[in-house]
């Protein structure tokens, strides 16, 4: 009888458990908050709303809850959370409740007219922070009545409030000391107005307490929120080196390679994943830019002082931004009129005779309108020939560059932005004796002349639905014109490009915020007119397209972005571009990412190979038709995998990242400089062409304020040339990198970067006379840069630095430099530095 009773009870329990499992639900959705106190409030409220489990991630602001659908619902949980002061994407917290939150909990309420007025902005010259203690169980609690004192003015001190928050009126850079009875005092150096989190922890070895300070983010980082493998480079990182323009913005980044295109023009080119920068889609605030004829030359068109930040995405990027991304996407964020410094003055000079000046002015007209004027000018007037080959080591010339930006927001969801851009650039290079007024297009002396003008109008309109923040619509518009006139010895090259761009984007959800999507329509129009060596090359590209991108976040720790676009090219027909990105958070500190996707583009054989024009080579195009250059469009697939492991060692946070990418071309325009040293031949790929990139990087502060970045990168890049698969020339298979950055007391900043590049395969010159041949491989070499910066409280910074500290220079950078009009002249075979040690200095002055 007992057995039957036990069997009956077990059956009832099993049925009840089965029913409960059927009613069990797990949902993940966004809840806006800011700090550890927010986390506790959000999770406790979820439990009160009858959730069985609740976990809110402070970084992603995503709350995962488990609950019985018969007892509660996800909307009931969201409503309860909104009732205690935290917005969700469907329910808004009452303003009066939000206003009563502790000040450390004030998060940004987008498109809300009643944003708390107590929250101090950075422009108020107020340092904001929170002082916390960590319990033995790892829980963070605020410390009230802790003393925070300025070391620059000991009459300035405050105490933390009941929530551990302090506000100290002081300009940065500065130093403060935090003290509290029973804890060790510690000095903290502050260089910006990022909010501080100061944690008091018990030291296990002494029983005493130390102060640990964490700021919001490092100067470079891969966001744990981002599904894509995107490296964020801040404006702070750009000040570590002589970042005069975009082409010099990657000196402290191991992910992007920078090299000279030739030994004469001074133009720098970038590479990502072992592929030319032409295979990375360049964006300025998500609008395609620096493309077409301005490609390589255009990297000098964006001054470093204009850049707010750079986002480098490895692998194919978002389908929303277009179809041209193959190796990656590089998005440049320029300074915004509503958040930029009121005034920024920047001056630069180096011992090569290059002088630059920048003036940024930003002004808020009222609470809706703001404007900014960004001005840049540079001049290089000194003729130098340190290697005594008769050619200038760097070109002479000047550039004038300006942007006028406007922004309007009605504080109800509508934002309008517009920018007008204008640029004029002139350079002269070649032999030191060259005089353009008497020697141009003659054999008296070899000269290179480069002139460029660019004008652009950009407009952005966006609207976020106030009661449905997950829903928005945006329109991006751009119209630009680029004109270039150049000559290389006896060879003229002129280009003219007119472009129009439009992108209409609608964003919403499917059911709930676990299923988001972006869709829309884009249009890219380009008119090209080129004249090379008196031959005309004209074409029009008219490419309307549609796209759809779906984001899934319904499974804990897993995010998926799947996108597809279809573009209708007027000459190449329909082009379908699918892309997939996956991120899995294996642990709280481990992120795995996968990506796969394709891209296509039209090669601009002249504009992308101007470095080869500084030679006696003949340009030969083996074409199949009369459109453009008679070549097929380029198309490739890219596959990537990466892992980021964050760690905390000795109360200092570090990260280890490893990624691998493989790109293979289905179609490619091959630039063949191996067939003959007298020719450069362009033809469609017939065989394999691929790039494999593997990179490992470690970031860790060895000491407080002493950051170390170490990286190693391997490349295997091969292309089929005339039936033979060869390693691509002028690419180093191995690269090692180290960056040391130290912020010392009294606002001194020291930065040192060294890299080692392995031997590179050189183009075949075996048919030249022996004295005009290059070896099959270059030697390996080291390259080191350093900079010292001193900051003052009044916003003044002075810096001095040196590039190529060891003054290593490639010998014989020009083949047959004595006979520039002969058959063997070639200044395009550049495998190393072409300039010796370059010492520079500069100053910055900011009024925030």
Task: Report on the architecture of this protein.
With 848 residues, this protein is mainly β. It has a 22-stranded antiparallel barrel. α2 (36-48) crosses α3. The termini are far apart.
List the helices and strands and how they pair.
Blueprint: H1 2-23, E1 24-30, H2 36-48, E2 51-57, E3 62-68, H3 74-83, H4 95-99, E4 126-134, E5 140-142, E6 147-150, E7 157-159, E8 165-169, E9 174-179, E10 186-190, E11 196-202, E12 209-214, E13 220-222, E14 230-234, H5 235-238, E15 256-260, E16 268-272, E17 275-276, E18 280-284, E19 287-288, E20 307-314, E21 328-334, E22 343-350, E23 354-364, E24 369-380, E25 396-409, E26 414-430, H6 436-439, E27 447-464, E28 472-488, E29 491-510, E30 512-532, E31 535-555, E32 558-569, E33 573-587, E34 590-601, E35 618-621, E36 634-649, E37 652-667, E38 669-672, E39 679-684, E40 689-703, E41 706-721, E42 724-727, E43 734-743, E44 748-757, E45 781-791, E46 796-803, E47 838-847
Parallel strand pairs: 4-11, 18-21, 35-39
Antiparallel strand pairs: 1-3, 2-3, 4-5, 4-8, 6-7, 6-9, 9-10, 11-12, 13-14, 14-20, 15-16, 16-17, 18-19, 20-21, 22-23, 22-47, 23-24, 24-25, 25-26, 26-27, 27-28, 28-29, 29-30, 30-31, 31-32, 32-33, 33-34, 34-36, 36-37, 37-40, 38-39, 40-41, 41-42, 41-43, 43-44, 44-45, 45-46, 46-47
Helix pairs in contact: 2-3
Could you name the key traits of this structure?
848 residues, mainly beta, Immunoglobulin-like, Maltoporin, Chain A, 22-stranded antiparallel beta barrel, six-stranded mixed beta sheet, 6 helices
